[in-house]
Amino acid sequence: xxxxxxxxxxxxxxxxxxxxxxxxxxxxxxxxxxxxxxxxxxxxxxxxxxxxxxxxxxxxxxxxxxxxxxxxxxxxxxxxxxxxxxxxxxxxxxxxxxxxxxxxxxxxxxxxxxxxxxxxxxxxxxxxxxxxxxxxxxxxxxxxxxxxxxxxxxxxxxxxxxx
Length: 163
Description:
The protein has helices spanning 10-27, 53-73, 112-142, 154-161, and strands at residues 31-36, 41-46, 81-85, 90-96, 100-106.
């Protein structure tokens, strides 16, 4: 079930952004990134302008995959929480709902304890949102509803990018 592709609508994305923006404020974080396990950026919030978020997303997913392999070697299912401490900035990485990765970038304006506390609450909220998205996706599939992109043809795509 975790590998089921989800269809996220604008309303879902707004709910996710609201949680991320609140987490930036409450944890006093520099930036928050939400990434799927395939390395795709889902959403971001905060002051981290100019950062290569595509690379951050793919490297974060790779990090989760690599440490998942390490966990299995020693008999664990996974390591759902990661912390990386740098000279200026720190990363707190949490697996949410088994499929989404929450990355919090913070500096000396915050603390690991505060970030962990705020991430726990935000992670539960995000887990609930993604569970609702999963249920909506399953209901749509069960009812035989076509993909929202099913009616888009190759000609439509060509016309979109033509002069």
